[in-house]
Amino acid sequence: MSFDTSRFTFDPFKNYSGVVMEQGRVQLDSDWNDWLAELTRRIQAGTLDILGRAAYPPTTPSAFLISFIGGKLTIGPGRMYVDGLLAENHGDPAAGTWDPALAELSGSPQPPPATEIGAIDFSSQPWLPGVTLPGQGTWFAYLDVWTREVTYLEDSNLIDPAIGIDTTGRLQTIWQVKLVSVNAGVTCATAGNPWPADSTGVLTTAPIANTPSGPCCLTDNTGYTGKENQNYSVEIHTKGPNGTATFKWSRFFHWWIVPTFTPAICAARW
């Protein structure tokens, strides 16, 4: 995790639906974050149950519409739901119009325009910088969606100008339209599974025996060495294959540089 949190207590099997504040109690980050996790899962699960794994609403009929005209591959503006996560292409800001329903400028205002407006170029995706259109061939386009953590390192606006520090972090939904090569003549019905495999990068949170060797070491079975308190911070430095990629990770506020991990972004669920 990137956030400076004390512990993570959310457990979906407990079916908690809210956090109740009691008078005279100390406020903890874990309670706030447990409430956020409960609400987020409720919204995602409800959306998945109602709309299915992938759907776009009739209010944004051009959502992620892929068009190829005049040698340009474009992505239509609008909202689409992937495994319950909301992915939104706000479109070209210069083409946006006022949406009275959401009270904002939008590339997919209400009521929906008769024709698509504000589509963006494939190479101008906000969350996939530097992408270029591949050469000739047969390609499937797919939408990759996930949620990531954002701290003041990624968004300096999270630092409050009055006190000069960050007080909170943010969760951000990221989307990317990607292409996968297939043989000529292949259709969605005959393609099988051409999509990239899930990442094999894993990090265990199993309890690790800790032999005390000083006054600052934690003692086993003291109530603070369980999995809920093992929040790992992982930061990718250099991407690439095994032996090239580097990252640092921390559990007890110290860092290691390890050149044996291949970071990958894959799967709509994370």
Describe the structure.
The chain is mainly beta and 270 residues long. The chain folds into two domains: 129 residues, no CATH class; 72 residues, no CATH class. The chain is 9% helix and 25% strand. It has one helix and 13 strands, in the order αβββββββββββββ. The strands form five sheets. Strands 1-4-5 form a three-stranded antiparallel sheet, with helices on one face. It has a three-stranded antiparallel sheet with strand order 2-3-8, with no helix packed on it. β2 and β3 form a beta hairpin. The radius of gyration is 22 Å and the shape is globular. The C terminus is likely disordered.
Features:
270 residues, 2 domains, disordered C terminus, three-stranded antiparallel sheet, 13 strands, 1 helix, mainly beta, single chain
Span between N and C termini? 13 Å
H/E series: HEEEEEEEEEEEEE
Q: Rounded to an integer, what's the Rg over CA atoms? A: 22 Å
Give the count of helical stretches: 1
Helix content: under 10%
Q: Can you tell me the residue ranges where pLDDT is under 50 for at least 5 consecutive residues?
A: 253-270
Largest sheet: 3 strands, antiparallel
Count of strand segments: 13
**Can you tell me the number of structural domains?**
2
Strand order of the largest sheet: 1-4-5
* Shape, per Cα inertia axes: globular
How much of the sequence is in beta strands? 25-35%
The helix-and-strand class reads: mainly beta
Task: Indicate the mean pLDDT.
Answer: 83
